[in-house]
Amino acid sequence: MIKQALISVSDKTGVLEFAKALAAQGVNILSTGGTAKLLADNGVKVTEVADYTGFPEMLDGRVKTLHPKVHGGILARRDLPEHVAALEQHGIPTIDMVVVNLYPFQQTVAKDQCTLEDAIENIDIGGPTMLRSSAKNHKDVVVVCDPADYGRVLDEMKANNGEVGYDTKFALAKKVFAHTAQYDGAITNYLTALGEDKQHATRSAYPQTLNLHFEKVQEMRYGENPHQSAAFYRDLAPVAGSLANYRQLQGKELSYNNIADADAAWECVKTFEETACVIIKHANPCGVAVGASPLEAYGKALQTDPTSAFGGIIAFNRELDGKAAEAVAKQFVEVLIAPAFTAEAKQVFAAKQNVRLLEIPLDNAVNAYDFKRVGGGLLLQSPDAKNVAVAELKVVTKKQPSPQQMQDLMFAWRVAKFVKSNAIVFCANGMTMGVGAGQMSRIDSARIASIKAQNAGLSLANTAVASDAFFPFRDGLDVVVDAGATCVIHPGGSMRDQEVIDAADERGVVMLFTGTRHFRH
Ligand SMILES: NC(=O)c1ncn([C@@H]2O[C@H](COP(=O)(O)O)[C@@H](O)[C@H]2O)c1NC=O
């Protein structure tokens, strides 16, 4: 039976209603300064911890609940007569429920102006101590660190004569240790990322010990292959517009490969300001296009490689309308992603319940880090968020690009960033015409891109070509010009740049340097 609860919260969401409901069930409420005031001002009968312990809150709140009368009341095992006798001897009543949430450390250090002093003052000491005491003694104490659990706890108390069952107590305790571990991890990350001045965290710094916290969204039936197990975890606060913000409107459960490919599709389609469509197979775009409408963009993207598009993951950066949905529904599609779906579009797929429809609010925010697991370690880097502006481009050939060529080159360059290296992408009129991906030699990627265009019946005459990294020799350039390209964009920076520029002049094509490389592995 819960007779006494201690409530001490920074985030006061829902706490008044919760405390009222506890009081209505006859629970005696202890509370700290600000929380006690809120409750008392709103008619809840409450005893201040300072009055309860006979010891005032002191040192600017650094010491409020750190007292044997509090921790004894929490930590005493009710099944051990010696513990019960010790409480009696010292006049300590038991505390059967602890409701605590912590000083907002993460929110404080996320602010640009946060100083070390601000951060230090927002390290909660008394709160985690009470949480850990209660979680350790969860057999006898209900511990609530998340306002989202208030309803669940009350429901259970109402249904069980004021009691909370062991399973719930155990689950709440596990949540506490995950929460305090995450809290301490955030403190460690912040302190180890501090710059020389010990005042501001340098945003680019990589902490000496890296603490990562993700929450499980789902376990999958299997991983990349059926003999591998898998689960999807997301950031505790995923960046706006990222895949993890998806809302699944219909369809089968997402698989491991679905999520990986959906991410590739979504990240690529988001890069375009114009209405765009991206079709992904095995993490590579097999068709990308912009158009006046989703229907037109899809039609063009599909033309690039209709064979590979079968069973693909398709993403749009505009609301998907009925007409585009009807066109897409004619092909086998695994996952379809858009910022929104019209009622007509939803209706089209109502008859195809296996198709997974994901709605993701559009936003171009980027993750703080990219990760790649390697044997026994983890590689971290800042994400490849760079989009080269026209002003940064350098025309290195005698021939200057026409406005149309410039448009095609910019489009090709945007796409190349999302194609696995070595990437060669032929484009024209806002669509991919041939994509060569993931080859160990650039010249092979160039050959494959042109073979794929032939297979799709697309002419590469007068196309623009993007290469994710420089041409090390003129041979790769010769392959794309032989195939029909009249303008080429790549980072430049090779020892043999001059040889490649001379070759471009000799072949009468336009060549632009971006000064930026987009390797993707
Ligand atoms: N020092 C202590 O003994 C202590 N006991 C509880 N707290 C925290 O004080 C906060 C609530 O304070 P208030 O009720 O005054 O608004 C909670 O976030 C709680 O975790 C403490 N503060 C920091 O360590």
UniProtKB/TrEMBL annotation:
Give the matching SUPFAM superfamilies. Answer: Cytidine deaminase-like, Methylglyoxal synthase-like
Q: In which pathway does it act?
A: Purine metabolism; IMP biosynthesis via de novo pathway; 5-formamido-1-(5-phospho-D-ribosyl)imidazole-4-carboxamide from 5-amino-1-(5-phospho-D-ribosyl)imidazole-4-carboxamide (10-formyl THF route): step 1/1; Purine metabolism; IMP biosynthesis via de novo pathway; IMP from 5-formamido-1-(5-phospho-D-ribosyl)imidazole-4-carboxamide: step 1/1
Per the UniProt entry, the Enzyme Commission number(s) are 2.1.2.3, 3.5.4.10
Residues annotated as domain MGS-like:
1-145
Recite the UniProt keywords alphabetically: Hydrolase, Multifunctional enzyme, Purine biosynthesis, Transferase
Molecular function per GO: IMP cyclohydrolase activity; phosphoribosylaminoimidazolecarboxamide formyltransferase activity
What's the superkingdom here? Bacteria
- Free-text note on domains in this protein's UniProt record: The IMP cyclohydrolase activity resides in the N-terminal region.
Q: What is this protein called?
A: Bifunctional purine biosynthesis protein PurH
Which organism encodes this protein? Noviherbaspirillum album
